[in-house]
Specification:
alpha+beta; Sulfite Oxidase, Chain A, domain 2; five-stranded antiparallel beta sheet; 10 strands; globular; binds the ligand Nc1nc2c(c(=O)[nH]1)N[C@H]1C(S)=C(S)[C@@H](COP(=O)(O)O)O[C@H]1N2; binds molybdenum atom; signal
């Protein structure tokens, strides 16, 4: 009886997780995540799965887009949480194989996001989507530096989570 009860609890617990976020994409995979994560294979995400993460917005200009836009998307902090990752550095690769390293702390202290929407619309590859790292440039003058520009990767397709050990 007790065993049956724990078994039922287990099912309940699993269902709660499943309702939060599906583990397998049903749409086009736009992001893969590897490295220090809790799955053997790369984790794959379609847009709906990324939309299930908490959403944040930034309204800003950037040096490579025209005009003021509102960007919406997810934080690396919630993504790594979801994957049970203790990584503190992200190695991010774009569709054109441009690669940059972004400390996880940028998503807390510097307010960066992985934007999947521009003014409420999906971002086409032509417009530097489907995923762009956006910083709140207008809000914080000190972000307007070559170092941060170099981390502002667009057409993001892969993230490797790295645990730094000293
Ligand atoms: N996908 C992708 N993102 C990228 C780059 C790139 O080549 N590809 N260049 C980075 C660098 S080094 C800088 S300074 C800024 C601005 O690049 P730009 O001078 O080519 O506009 O975007 C960053 N994001
Ligand atoms: Mo750069």
């Amino acid at each position: 009886m007790r065993l049956l009860f724990s078994f039922l609890l287990l099912i309940l617990a699993n269902n709660t997780v499943a309702a939060d976020m599906a583990d397998t994409p049903t749409g086009r995979v736009i992001l893969t995540v590897s490295g220090a994560i809790n799955t053997k294979l790369n984790a794959t995400f379609d847009l709906a799965m990324l939309d299930a993460l908490p959403q944040y917005t930034i309204t800003t200009h950037t040096p490579w887009t025209q005009g003021l836009h509102t960007y919406r998307g997810f934080s690396a902090v919630d993504l790594l949480d979801h994957l049970g990752s203790t990584g503190t550095l992200l190695q991010i690769t774009a569709l054109n194989q441009y690669m940059t390293e972004v400390p996880l702390s940028d998503f807390l202290d510097n307010g960066a996001i992985f934007a999947t929407r521009q003014d409420g619309r999906e971002i086409s590859v032509r417009n530097l989507g489907p995923i762009m790292v956006i910083y709140p440039f207008d809000e914080r003058e000190e972000l307007k530096s070559e170092r941060i520009y170099g981390r502002s990767i667009w057409q993001v397709s892969h993230i490797k989570s790295i645990v730094l050990t000293e």
